[in-house]
């Protein structure tokens, strides 16, 4: 196709056997054929290229050549000429875009398809238009991408990290595969691959975790500038600051945007020397990532030129009953002055109990000068000072030794209770005290000796309660011992006290006849005022509750009963020899609410001895349920 115009392509020749002397021929191309690209010499038959060929436009031509014989018109002929155009690699591959920008997230896995390039080549033959792809990277030592040479698919070849490489500039080449290497043509396109951020980085603190501030700064003073960086982009890298813990007393304020930490109240080195704030840096990604840092803020002491105790208030404890010379505490003061003016001497200021202690004037060590007794004095307040200086106060607690036993209020307890108390009733509250402190002075109660299951004691309150119903008629008195013990874990001490419980009677027993019915034979000639029978009854109760009197329930003229002895006395002569009667006798105790019982006394003469019988052979009665006891 790159054959130049005006050159002879070919020449049409007539076979020799058709040639004649002085034969005159005329060559021409049929008008219907393409005569734009080709011309023929009408005399010689030479075929010329009149216009450049393009394989991609026309790769084949079929020309009809007419040969006229002027000498012999009957010898005119037509020749068809087939012309194949051979492809020449005259087209370069080309991309549709001059510059390609692609975005891809940094966390995609290896082998992820990034983009597919599709270059075109105008050549017609296979190898001249077959394209192979390659790439070069311009801003990195290692190429994190690869391209498929045939398909043009660009994929990831190594992990991406936007925080290391934000973008990659590639040059993608498309080269045809002409057989002659020197004739191969190529095109290229610039590609910018932008690595898109994901929130894969937590903030990291850049500022120091230690800061110092003097105690006399004003409220609002800048203490520290907290700085954290997040290499992520946009909201993923926007950091805010927060205090998680350590600022419970609201001593500091943290600006969540700037990270400026300022004082919110006055600081006091003697109250708190340092603060440990747990600070969080939080990005604005979704989900948000965070980092924490423990920021230590040291409050520096402001010391003028006078000695100052490291503490204004000392507190310690020492055991009682120890020999003199027991170490109590060491106090310490500092003086920013130099030389002799910084040498300190310590002393105790006069005060209550100060004579029981000695101070080492050089070291500031305090020891006892006498044995201490917590029960006499538990707390000492001692003031000391270095020479020519301010004072500090020592709060000294004498620690308890278990040197006291619990003591009951009484040496013996006596109590009377009625026998009708309900089970669980409190009858006595024991109380014991122990002058010791803590567990040494905490008292627990218990019972020893057998209470026959009738009593128990609350181990904490000392309350004695009944554990079953009492019955004076069974047991009228209980004697047992109660123990008060302290709760010391080493050699507990205890005290025992005797408890005597009297059971008072209540009228809870009915009189009981020793015999019922009573049959008495009375001769008909028995004299008046003669005792004909005696009824006997007992009552287990005590005193008036158990004192019994007798009465006839039905008024009787023939007989009467002695209310105290129960003797039945004949008051009138018997009316006949076959006399018989039944007396209903009631026995009553003399309690406030008397309890009673009845008995039948059958009196008969000798002739009626065998005539006594029931009036009916069967008695029937109905009794409602829930009837009260003693109902008739």
TrEMBL record:
BP term (GO), one: homophilic cell adhesion via plasma membrane adhesion molecules
Tagged with keyword Membrane: yes
Keywords: Calcium, Cell adhesion, Glycoprotein, Membrane, Repeat, Transmembrane, Transmembrane helix
The keyword Repeat is assigned to this record: yes
Location within or outside the cell: Membrane
GO CC, one annotated term: plasma membrane
Protein's name in the database: PCD23 protein
Species of provenance: Mystacornis crossleyi
Source organism phylogeny: Eukaryota, Metazoa, Chordata, Craniata, Vertebrata
């Amino acid at each position: 196709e790159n054959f130049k115009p005006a050159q002879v392509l070919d020449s049409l020749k007539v076979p020799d056997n058709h040639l004649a002397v002085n034969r005159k021929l005329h060559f021409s191309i049929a008008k219907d054929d393409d005569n734009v690209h080709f011309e023929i010499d009408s005399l010689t038959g030479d075929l010329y290229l009149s216009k450049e060929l393009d394989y991609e436009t026309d790769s084949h031509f079929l020309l009809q050549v007419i040969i006229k014989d002027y000498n012999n018109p009957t010898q005119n002929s037509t020749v068809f000429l087939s012309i194949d155009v051979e492809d020449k690699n005259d087209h370069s591959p080309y991309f549709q875009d001059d510059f390609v920008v692609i975005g891809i997230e940094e966390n995609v896995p290896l082998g992820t398809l990034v983009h597919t390039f599709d270059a075109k080549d105008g050549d017609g033959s296979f190898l001249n238009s077959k394209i192979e792809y390659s790439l070069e990277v311009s801003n990195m030592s290692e190429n994190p991408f690869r391209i498929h040479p045939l398909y043009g698919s660009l994929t990831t070849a190594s992990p991406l990290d936007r925080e290391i490489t934000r973008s990659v500039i590639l040059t993608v080449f498309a080269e045809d595969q002409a057989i002659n290497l020197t004739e191969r043509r190529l095109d290229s396109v610039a590609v910018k691959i932008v690595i898109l951020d994901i929130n894969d980085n937590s903030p990291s603190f850049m500022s120091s975790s230690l800061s110092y501030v003097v105690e006399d700064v004003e409220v609002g003073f800048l203490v520290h500038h907290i700085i954290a960086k997040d290499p992520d982009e946009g909201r993923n890298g926007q950091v805010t600051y927060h205090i998680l813990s350590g600022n419970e007393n609201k001593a500091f304020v943290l600006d969540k945007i700037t990270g400026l930490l300022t004082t919110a109240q006055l600081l006091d080195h003697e109250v708190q020397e340092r603060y440990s704030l747990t600070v969080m840096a939080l990005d604005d990604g979704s989900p948000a990532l965070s980092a924490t840092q423990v920021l230590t803020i040291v409050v520096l002491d402001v010391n003028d030129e006078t000695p100052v105790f490291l503490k204004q208030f000392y507190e310690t404890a020492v055991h009682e009953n120890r020999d003199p010379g027991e170490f109590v505490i060491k106090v310490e003061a500092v003086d920013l002055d130099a030389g002799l003016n910084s040498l300190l001497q310590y002393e105790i200021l006069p005060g209550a109990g100060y004579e029981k202690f000695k101070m080492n004037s050089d070291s500031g060590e305090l020891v006892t000068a006498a044995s201490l007794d917590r029960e006499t004095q538990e707390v000492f307040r001692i003031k000391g000072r270095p020479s020519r200086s301010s004072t500090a106060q020592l709060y000294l607690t004498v620690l308890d030794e278990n040197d006291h036993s619990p003591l009951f209020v009484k040496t013996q307890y006596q109590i009377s209770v009625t026998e009708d108390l309900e089970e669980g009733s409190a009858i006595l509250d024991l109380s014991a005290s122990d002058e010791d402190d803590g567990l040494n002075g905490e008292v627990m109660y218990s019972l020893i000796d057998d209470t026959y299951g009738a009593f128990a004691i609350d181990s904490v309150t000392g309350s004695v309660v009944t554990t079953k119903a009492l019955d004076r008629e069974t047991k009228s008195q209980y004697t047992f011992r109660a123990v008060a013990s302290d709760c010391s874990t080493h050699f507990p001490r205890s005290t025992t006290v005797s408890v005597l419980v009297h059971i008072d009677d209540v009228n809870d027993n009915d009189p009981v006849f020793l015999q019922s019915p009573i049959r008495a034979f009375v001769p008909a000639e028995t004299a008046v005022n003669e005792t004909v029978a005696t009824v006997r009854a007992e009552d287990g109760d005590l005193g008036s509750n158990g004192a019994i009197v007798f009465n006839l329930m039905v008024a009787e003229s023939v007989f009467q009963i002695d209310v105290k002895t129960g003797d039945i006395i004949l008051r009138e002569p018997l009316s006949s020899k076959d006399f018989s009667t039944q007396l209903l006798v009631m026995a009553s105790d003399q309690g406030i609410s008397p309890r009673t019982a009845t008995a039948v006394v059958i009196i008969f003469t000798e002739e009626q001895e065998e005539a006594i019988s029931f009036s009916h052979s069967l008695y029937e009665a109905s009794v409602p349920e829930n009837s009260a006891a003693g109902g008739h």
